[in-house]
Design goal:
Order of helices and strands: HHHHHHHHHHH
Radius of gyration: 19 Å
Structural class: mainly alpha
Number of helices: 11
Number of strands: 0
Shape: globular
Largest sheet: none
Strand content: under 5%
Helix content: over 70%
Amino acid sequence: MPLRGKQASGLLTQQKMLHAAVKLFLKKRYEGTTTAEIARAAGMTPSSFFRAFPSKEALLLELDKRMFSGQFALAEQHSAAQDPVLLYAVETAIQLHIAELTESLRELYVTAYTLPSTSAYLYRSTAKRLEGIFGDYLPDAEAKDFYEMEIASAGMMRSFMAVPCDVYFTVERKIARFLECALKLYNVPVERRREVTAAVLQLDLHAMAAGIIRTTVQQAEKGFEAVKAEPAF
């Protein structure tokens, strides 16, 4: 059904802001980018930003939703459907690899795990999936338990992301260490943890991570074009 009048105009403004923000965040980092700069890069006045989003954090939340959904979809392409633990491991390994691509991406992901609205979204959306992934290993755990454990594993993720890799602490070692800690938290047996980690490290995670970022930029552009193409009447 075609979008009409103000609805189409509002979505168009949001897409313009989102597309401009993606480029600026990658160039200047999240903290170094103002809402006025985003609006100007979108070809609008500084005050117009707040017609699209209530705050820069709200824009980041929308961006996070798109990035994480793309990340999950890509991980599913590389994991057997009957192996949810491997899928979880691939998803988290991709996140860690994305944070190593550039310092701007590191800051963006660490910020997502820090700000109130974005971290709350990550806790809620991930906790819902954890019971299905690790329920067999934690048969007595309830939904609230998985939510609380997600707060713990997300804290580990943020900490690992925040520390840059070097010749001693390579990205492969970082991924292996994170998976050891996270899978132990969810009561996955030692041999299974080693098996899953070995399988993940055989993947071309760098290419997968770069693909997520490339797709995010492309989707921001396509979203803008899709809304622009809708007839407004």
